[in-house]
Every structure is written in structure tokens, then in C-alpha cells.
Amino acid sequence: MSLTEKDKAAVKALWAKVSKVMDTVGGEALGRMLLVYPQTKTYFSHWPDLTPGSEPVMVHGKLILGGVTEAVSKIDNLRGGLLELSELHAFKLRVDPSNFKMLAHCAMVVIAIMFPKDFTPETHVAFDKFLAAVALGLSEKYR
Amino acid sequence: MVVWTDFERTTIQDIFSKINYAVVGQAAFSRCLTVYPWTQRYFGQFGNLYNAAAIASNPKVAAHGKVIMEALEKAVKDMDNIKATYAELSALHSEKLQVDPDNFMLLGDCLTIVVASQLGKNFTAEVHAAFQKFLAVVVSSLRRQYY
Question: In this structure, what CATH number is given to the domain that contains residue B72?
């Protein structure tokens, strides 16, 4: 399921639009994930407020989406390009990789809400593949 | 026993009263076949599913999308009895159609994305959570007869 040139082009085109509202997308996606998949809250027990729209959620969402932007820029070599972030997730955060899919899905729901005409089935499959590849890159150093 | 809050009940009724089953069904099912092409394995008799454009214009896909939405409506109409409502459909998917139950949530995710794009800002985080909880219950009921 590796990214074709067509996939990469679709991802970059979508991200050009999404990155303009990136701060909101990240926070919204994270907030939704915590609500829709409550088991993910277990990673954030140190936050005072886990409700959608709260400050820690919005700040952290922005951080995560910054990582995705970095991944878009390294789309030709995700495994190599995400090594540092992978080390962070592997040794410090130790997020179970099954959770990456849940955040990815919530990000796509937010994108579908904000860009319904752009998030066509073809763009969707390219972006889904991309986020799966990012997840794989992030889990590279796990074991 | 699934416990539904009042908010969840009204949200699900509201969503299903607003959406057009033919439109949403076609959009969600064709999206599933496009984004997760291995799901096409169950639809060999549907004709041309060769690419996204073919899937999007395929009349059998459209018809089947509507069938799926009408089946979901049964659960919407009797939210406290979803397990019983889908007992037969579960056996059908397991014994006759032999669908890998992991595929159910793939369709569920595509349906969520289509409904989200239709409802826009009204598909708030809380509405989203209620919708996915509903789909999770449906999927769980469809999985029950597998052994």
C-alpha cells in the first residue's frame, strides 16, 4: 500500500488547503478522538481538561498537526524522515500504534466537514494511505 | 445492555431524519469500495468497479447503498433492541455472504465521513461521538452470529 505519485500529489494539494486552518483542524481532531474513543484519554490523565475545545486539547492538537505537516514535506521518505518523532513515540510516549488509526479517522472527519468538496473518495484514499504510512513511520522504532 | 442518553437518542433520530438515504447510501458505499478496494471482493456481480469514476456511476452500487441505509433505519427505529433486530442479518453476513466482520467498520467510517460532510458544522464532536457509538452497536450486533 505504498504511495503512488498520484497519491502524493493529492495529499500535497489537500494539505495546501488544510494547512491554512491547521491550528483548528488539529485541536478539533484530537478533541473528537478523546470523545469518540474514550480509551485514548488514558494517555492524557495529566491534563486538567480533556473536553473538546479546551486549551490543552487545542494546543496539543496544533502540535500534532505540525508533525503531519512535517510528514507531508518528507512524503518521499517517511520512514527515514520521521525517525526522531518515532523515537519520541517509541521510548517516551509509548502510544499503542492502534491509536494512530483513531486520530487519523477523526482528522479526516474534520477535513470532510471543512472541505467537503475537496475530500473526494480519490483524495480520501490517498490521504488514508498517507496517514497509515505516517503511522508506520512513527512505529518504526518501537521494537 | 446498551444505555442511550436522551441526547444520543435524539441525535440519531435527527440525523436519520435529515439525510437522503439514496444519496448518502450511494456516497458512503461507493467511498468504501474506493478507499478500501479489497471490500470489492463481495461484489463480483456488480459489474464495473475498475476505478473511482466507475464505482461512483455504478447503478448497482447506488441501489445497494440505499439498501444498506434502509437496513440501518431498522436499528434507528428500535434503538433498545438492535441485537435482536440484526440477528437474521448477522447470520446472513456470516453464513451466506461470508463477509469478514472487520470490514463492517470500514463502511461505518466512510458513512461517518459522508454524514459529516453533509451536516458540516452541525456534526459537532458530541454528535459525532453519538453517531459512532450507534454504528459500534450496529457492528457489534452484526458480529454476534459469527462463530
Answer: 1.10.490.10
* Out of A105, A112, A125, closest to residue B117 by CB: A112
CATH code of A5-139, in short, is 1.10.490.10
CA distance A16 to A69: 10
Tell me the residue range of the domain where B85 lies.
6-143
Mean pLDDT over the full length of chain A: 95
State the best of B109, B117, B118, B122 to mutate against chain A, taking most chain A CBs within 10 Å.
Answer: B117
Q: Taking the CB of residue B13, how many other CB atoms lie within 10 A of it?
A: 13
- Give the pLDDT confidence score for residue A1 in this predicted structure: 80
ipTM: 0.90
Say whether residue A31 is in contact with chain B using an 8 A CB cutoff: yes
Residues in chain B within 8 Å Cβ distance of A108: 113
Say if B138 falls within a structural domain. yes
List of E strands, A78-137: none
A32·B35 Cβ contact <8 A? no
Q: Is residue B69 part of a domain?
A: yes
